[in-house]
User: Fold these one by one.
Assistant:
Number 1:
Amino acid sequence: MTRQPLLDIKDLTVEFGQGHRTSPLRAVDGVSLDIAPGETVGLVGESGSGKSTIGRAVLGLTPVHSGRVRFEGIDVTRAGPRTRRGLSARLQVVFQDPYSSLNPARTIGQTLAEPLLVHRRLDRRETDAHIAEMLERVGMPADTAGRYPGQFSGGQRQRIAIARALMLEPSLVICDEPVSALDLSIQAQVMNLLARLQRELSLSYLFIAHDLPVVRHLSDRVVVLYRGRVMESGPAQVVYADPVHPYTEALLDAVPAPDPRAQRARRAAQAAPKTTNPPADEGCVFAHRCPYAIDICHRERPALLPLPSRGEKQPEGGRAVACHRSGEPARVRGLHT
Amino acid sequence: MAIFRLAVRRLLSSAPLLFLVSALTFVLVSLVPGDPARTIVGQHVTVEQYEAVRVQLGLDDPLPVQYWDWLVGVLHGDLGASLFSGEAVTKTLNDRLPVSLSLIVAGTVVSGILGVALGLLSARRGGLLTRAVDLLSLLGLAVPAFWFALVLIAVGAVKLRWFPVTGYVPFADDPAEWARSLVLPVISLSLSAVAVIAKQTRDCVLDTFGRDFIRVMQANGFSRRSILYRHVLRNAAVPVVTVLGVVLVSLLAAAVFVETVFAMPGLGSLTQQATVQHDIPVIQGAVLYITVLVVLVNLLVDMAYNRLDPRVRAA
Amino acid sequence: MNLLTATKRPRTAEPGKAPRRPPLIRRVLRRPAGAVSLCWLALLTAATLAALLITRYGPLDQDLGHVLAGPTSDHLLGTDNLGRDLLSRVLFGGRSTLLAVGEALVVFLLIGVTAGLASGFLGGWVDWLTVRTADLLFALPGIVIVLVVLSVFPGNLHAAMITFGALGSPGIIRILRSQTLGIREELYVAAAKVAGLTRAQILRRHILPRLISTVIVQAALFAAIVVTVQAGLGFLGLGAQPPNPSWGGLVADASQAIDRAPWMLVPTGVPLVLTVTALALLGDAVRDAAVEGWSVSKLAAAGAAPPAAAASPTEQADAPDAFALEVSDAVAAPPADVPDDTALLSVRNLSIAIGGIPVVQGVSFDISAGETVGMVGESGCGKSVTSLGILGLVPGGGQITGGQVLFDGTDLVGSADALAGVRGTGIAYVSQEPMVALDPAFAVGRQLAEAVRRHRRCDRRTARARVTELLSMVNIPDPEGVARRYPHQLSGGMAQRVAIALALAGEPKLLIADEPTTALDVTVQAEILALLHTLQAETGMAVLLVTHDWGVVADLCHRSVVMYAGQVVEQADVEQMFTRPLHPYTAGLLAANPHLAAEGEPLPTIAGTVPAPRDWPLGCRFAARCDLADESCTTRPVPLTEPAPDRLTRCVHSPRLLLEGTRP
């Protein structure tokens, strides 16, 4: 990392109150990550991993308990409404649900004009021209602006939501499961659109998703989350090809390969899943499900440490793992393919 | 045991309501431009006599003290005496309570049974019955109980002479006449209640029928009877019970009109008379009684929730 | 209603003018109920204000020569016991009604809208206080409090109406609060925040416009109640003092003469009833009109064949019959018109219509005992409808319009007895959303026991033992403990295991699993898939697995049926289908899967979307999205052919595909 990161998150913790009797739920627990200009960082995890909460915390939609969020060098952790308004031109979002993310009572044109209200006072004609240009960019017909969201399919709405995010010139777009609600063929269209826009407009993405193949396809680097903590992070292709953390491994193993022969071989090799007991209070959050857990895993929380070079390999750039046994060579790989 | 604890907790938490209502009534009453002492003694008495009555009524004390005295009295079952008849308010109210209870309980039972049955039928058959329930619910809102009562009297009592025009026969005197005297009042009281309950039942049953678990049960061979009577009804019951609670409270209010029309000596008509006569102690007492009834109704609804919905039970 | 009008609009963008929504008032007036109600209310207001232009009698003018008269040309509504003209008294009495409604409404809206909005939008202690107060007020019997007020301020209707307005406000406070809370959680409000809009802007642009119709509806309903209550007070002698007229007082007058002139009940009561009806209908009309134009269900908007949502009964009545023409015998699959006797399940030419529109056409396939068949396709292709159609449970009031479903040699179509005999014991079903697949009101064990006892006569204890056994079969660690739990106490994966146990209760020969893992996390999905694998090995049951996930197909299935726009477009052994798809749709769908994508290259895509059933063309339904499409594809329906042994495809180019392969 020679350049200053565009987004820099340090030890982010987010808690949700659950009424006064019970202790608050820690949805995000000491997460650090950064995004360089023009980079896509994928945030992967299952439900309850806190991945969406991180996105919302960056956007200021969820209050931060502790930690720090810097965007373009400015601390925005607890930015007030005025700072947020300034940020909104540079920091944007595309949500998962294309149905709830557009106001059904307002035309597409009215929705798209909204970001302009805050930043640039354009006259009617300029606004319309800008909207038309943006709609064309995302592949929507010119008369879209006069219609209501109800008249569009999920894929089309997601294109419109992307257009709204790009109305000003953002440098970072938080994509919160932008293709999860879409059918396979539509999903591919929207993924290609996101990739093309990134090239054309030199955007950075924080790409949040639960679907591992989708994240791999779009991301430069991935961060794997489990119960609010980072398990592993590193270059996407490397992490996918050679996961170090047992959780990453389990996650990748769980995705059935769309290849009958390969999948049959994998199933034959798979061990029965471990039964799940309630997670330990201290120690590794994954220990109760981990096939390699040893004593220390239940007692001590492993820190997220840069991965030491292993054997013949070069030190792996930007790779970090939170596992007590990450240094042990070949323990598992032979055992578990 | 759990249900008992719940009841106690609910009753305790309704204390603020009782307090609020009584205090509100008390403050309002203190604003009365008229003077109860003057009302009692009249214009032609000496200042001493007038003052004596004021002291006797406690009217010379500051308002919080008066309220405190009244509260203490309430806890001892003493609500004062009517300014007109001089009778103890508690006695008046206790005498009239059975009349209102007969009316309201009968109204609830009738509208509950009819409403649920109508709603169920309309949900299962659809078509004409669905329209009928829609029309009924419109009429239930649009036709005021007192006017409907008069129409019933004009038709059922004056013209056909099937039922007594007005009046109430205590159950102890003659059970048959008691029932006969209740028919028209209960019908006029129940019209809107039946409509509301039928519509709610219909909507909830249809809604439940559309839910995934019903389809899963059908697909896995559960019997039609069991699906309808065990699973659909049980799930539709929670919102229906909510409405039943609201309906019961609204029946308390509607009873004021119906009792007046049919000249029934109940709490409602008493409140109406006391209002016309500005008989403050009676009004205070009646409001207290009615509020307690409301609290009890809400308690019943909560206990029903507790029985019906496991999620409420867990919470 | 609104759903219907909405779905009928053109979904895809047309060049030229875009439809704009007319303003709310116009939409209300277009509805008969709305127009009639508004007319009545307007007429009534005008008539009461201009009463003396309508009747030449004053409200107090007595004519002792004509007392208690019925309607005559002179006294249109008759006279009362003092010979006063009833029309005049009704009109003049209406003034006090309108005034009372006005007063109560102002207070009601002032308190209700402010408190409701503040409570929902600001949250925190404001919300806490408002909710508590509203709850307290809501519990009060309003009319009784009004009586107290009237006993303090005798005859003061203004005080009574202001009090009643305040006592009525908790209703609207609650509704506005929950609506505001709901809207505040909508993603478009989050997007507006991210766009930098101020709170005031969000309130004005996103929240208020959506609340206005609610406010109008609530105001209309409350006005209706006020009219009744005001009349009621008048009736009790607590309103306008005689001889001044009021609607309630007129009814009281009528009650005095009920034995002599029952007619009087009519002119005194009917205006009351009509006014309240008009207000209630107006409320309904506004509610319906408010969502007209943009309320479209997700499925309908997706251009999908909506399994349940769009199939409202209203639509059924409205569906043009012309659509039925598309069902043509030419579409029938020639290779296998005769059911296969050896198969466990043999579906032949199954056609299903929802709301008169065909959504599944001529579907044929077989499942042998112990076999797993995957049914693949995007949403709107008819997979779920087909799988439910087998069980005779077409959603949304749809119907099977043709074909056969032979299970163990018995045709299930249209035979309630055959279906009842098969459901649960022959064919069982597992649905997509495990969290809503179980009855929330009963403990898991009781539901399972009911299923067990339905399928085999046994006493309670045996049933309980069998429940434990079933729960152990689906790898639930503590079967007795779980049996006592309620569905809301289970995790998604656990609930799906219970749902599978429920399906196993009747020891079915075929399990239909409709996207059984789509709603689950990937590691939980893996567990459920493994469980299905084991169960199948242990019990030897066949499985029909509906899915959109190629990975799931590869994992579990022997054979796969690909559906597109209501038809089977390809059917083959899984391995062959993955290596050499013989339909461009299958090929495109396989290639679009990011799992197989080449690094750094755009994903191969299929342009466009699945056409809605209304838009199905005569020829190949995939032609519009297909690279290979030419004239031969669009002129006539494409039959299902068998270009290679055991391979079925609905593509005119299949011989070419067989030689060249589909991938570029």
Note: The two ends of chain A are 33 Å apart (CA to CA).
Number 2:
Amino acid sequence: MDEINTNVSRRRFLQATGVTGAATAAAVVGIPGTGMEATSAEAQTARAKPNTVITKNICHQCPARCGIDVYTTDGRVHAIYGTADHPISNGKLCPKGPLGTYVLYDPDRWRGPMKRTNPSKGRDEDPGFVPISWDEALDTVAGRLNNLRDAGESHRFALLYGRGWGASCAGLHGAFGQLYGSPNVAIGHSSMCSDGSIISKKMVEGNAAYNSYDYNNTNYILMFGVGFLEAFRPYNNNMQVWGHIRGRKTPKTRVTAVDVHMNTTLAASDRALLIKPGRDGALALAIAHVILAEGLWEKSFVGDFDDGVNRFVPGQDVPVAATAQPVPNSTSVDQEANLPQEPSLDSPEGGTVVPLDALVYDDEPADGPVPNVATGRFNERWVHGLVEWWNIELKDRSPEWAAELTDIPAETIRTVAREFGTTRPAMAIYERGAHAHSNGIYNGMAIHSLNALVGAFYAKGGMMGQMGPSYGPMPADANDYMDDWAQNGNWKDFPRIDKKGHEDGYLMANNMMQDVGPNHLAGDPYKLDTMMFYLTNPIWTAPNGQVWEEALKDVFIIDTSPFPSETGHYADLILPDHTYLERLQDSPTYPFQGFPMTQLRVPAIEPIHDTKYYGDVLIEIGKRINGPMGEYYRELGDTENVLRHLAEGFRADPGDNGVNDFESWKEKGVWYKRRYIYRQIGGTFYKWDGTDYSIEMTPEEVKQIVFPTPSGKFEFRSGLMEQNSDWIAEKTGRDPANLMFPIWEEPVHHGGGDLHLVTPKVALHAEGRGHNIPMVIAHLQPTIGGRGQAFCEIHPDTARARNISDGDRIKITSDVGSVEVTARYFQGVRPDTIVLPMEYGHWAAGRWSKAVPTEHAGEATVNVSDRITGQANYYSSKVNVTKA
Amino acid sequence: MAKWGMVIDLETCTGCQACTTACAMENNRLPGENWQDVLFYSEGEYPHLNLSWLPRPCMQCENPSCVSVCPTKATYVDEGTGVVLVDWNKCIGCKYCMVACPYGVRFYMDEAPVVQPDVKATYPGDGKRTWNPPFKMPDEYEDASKGIGIQPKGVVSKCTFCYHKISQAPEGVADLDEDNPETKEFTPACVRVCAPKSRFFGDLDNPDSYVNQLIADKGGVRLKEETGNKPKVYYLSGGGSPVVPGNRSRRS
């Protein structure tokens, strides 16, 4: 049976197509006073006006969460534009945004719940899906879960999710796992996303999160592998920022961008640096070296030698005396810096602290009163371990040293360092290009440390943390519904299937989804019984997904995607979600500009097919679980009830746009309050007093909010790394004497080939569904003419040396697999690297993507991860390339 | 009577193609039927490659060669707006206009589709239209006499400056700006979505329009002035004077 064209009962078809009513709480076009009613006389008389209704929603095609206006006329959704009163979209869209109607009307969507009839699973097996009722589907899931629980094996149920949106979907996972009793509910995809960024920031800054950014006020941006004008979230707003900082702002913001190939970001910047893959950390260390050696660091934030004489001399240690000095005349900082060093990592096994006697902290109080005399000692303000970092690492990290590693000329590095070090405000940003490598933790720590050197944290034009929305309480408290199994069951003795937080696995990681398949296949730590998936398709997206194809043959699989996918091809049950234009779903913002914001998807039309919102699927399954857990979900009722309770929080704290309850939230689509309440000015942290940043924050507050590190400062010497140094040293062979600093470490490349394989997302990569949107396929890769397929960028010399002509089919081979694609000569890619956008190669996800003649880079990508961050090293494989 | 024109600022354009996709969805164009295309160029060698791009809509010429050559008078300049349109009731699909257009912005879509399988087969048309996507524009906007909506077989299509929007604009408005709530709904799709705000749309006959200010302040130039077509699309490329001087103001 062709699952793409699954048979649909006539009744269901009629149900689906007969529904044309527009949703409530919508605005009709032609609002008096807006001018929209004032059409020309000719038009008024000659042509009737369409009866168009606009509903609010949030785009689903990337994580940015742009507010959108959805235009529906006569039950037909025909246009999508940015919502004008929305802080991210501001009425604009990226190239993906308008294509949402293709997602809604995708002819390959599932029509309703289905079960598998063919017990054999595999790429070439026809699942034999047949339609079933929602009751049968939900009862089947609940029956399995109840049986597992009764048998004392509830840990063998795992729920894997990708793009969680808010409290009414992924936000329900925590309580589900807590009440049901499984450490594997839920496992997020963050390690296959960008945990290399989150965890490396956590190690030095303390906050385990992406930063929010004040781009509009910055004067210099240094970008490492971020694809700022392709894939970096929020892309739409990034481009709005670009128009401002590069076209209209005075002075014009200067941009240096680092990547391995020429893309629109590099082309639009002032300077493009094509770096050897995995060497971004070396470049960052050399920039730090120059900033210190030339005295360019931000003294008000970092501190200074007490006599003002710079002792950072290349190749030389700063005298030890300079490191052993309390901070004179800065008792508040001094007190706070003398901190207990208890483990504060997420992992319960957080490791033990090893105080290193060899290194004396500047912030340890000396005995007796401290004379305030200039002695050439370095007084640290909001950083910790700078002099030690210099002595242990930076003093030898000259531009000449980095030039050898990175292929970027020393003079260029020096120029960039001077620009970055002398332009304020400045910021350095990084994502996967820099950290999806074996040394990603250190590349990330080194780059983020540049932000401390120039005082970017919480400064105007700098970077901050993200505030959350003022949600009301849930309809019920899960803690009141825990039975004995939930509280004391032996499921608590089992590690997670992905060994996140486990000594044998990834003690310090947030998630390890890429290892779920391989671990299940090996039965280590155990075999799963049932897996449910929400907005993730790891059989395809995981590196070396072929292992998952084998692994998922003997486990019961529930997929909830609205669309066919490779993971869905292995499913025993399909419980299809609505598409986003049919959903009522909340979504607090990702880190954006720091101020709190949460948004709402309002259905533009009734569901086209017999689908059910994932949050309601979860609640309905919960209701069917025996005992108090079922009670809890009956108390929740449904997701609309949950959202109504959350919106109660707006009554006491109305948004800037007047949103103060559920109905006004639906009407406007977003609740936000533009004021960000923390600001660092000249080395002092302030809180907003209602009219200005005037309330000085105590060191305790700074430690709690800004730098939740052991020292309460930005830590070049990472206390969190140090607390786990035994484990890190044992598992990675790193040196306990320096593993806690941003150090240089040569990247390790697996795969057995001679060319780096880099597989970026491009601007039109619509998350989860772009591959099956014809309009995306027509425009995916404009820089080298990739229309209708994605080409592999290869340098002409590299190609000719392999007897490959422009346009030839080529074979990309690593130790784990081989894929075939079309080569395109490109002078913009490094000769030691090939670049193939991650988008195509789907074999069970829709008619259009299946027809694209580009195979999937993931099948030649080795599944290796950064042992500290857990980041899947998507860009660290080396491959051989031959003519196909 | 407005003389609508567009200004595109290449200094801030990020080459994202949102203009392309927004246009295609607003006007129900087929994949590859890029009324509003973005052309990419690269020259030079590693490591110093010059990658650049040029967004290219129909130039909506005041003296359009496509109109001059049309044997059936199917393509014409609309009096009220100055927009060059195609009357699909008269077009015979001879493609003479496509040959005559100096800018390559006219399309004939009855040949091999850019993306397989053909979306026209997935969403089959009804005879009057070559395809019938479920997200088609409201019936009230469609107008074959102006080349708006989904074309019948065998005709040429082109950018209409979103005629169905701009023709509804209040009389006498100087600029159609998406950031102005009064004019948002009348602004062409490519202008409305442009995230870096690299596009501006206004009345070239109104000396107070912002487009005229931008052209003057930032040295707007038109492409291929030597053809005498007098495009109504101007490009800015940074700075106060044009990088490549236009010849519209040449004194001779």
Note: Chain A has four domains: 1-107+581-611+638-675, 108-194+488-577+614-627, 212-464+715-732, 755-883.
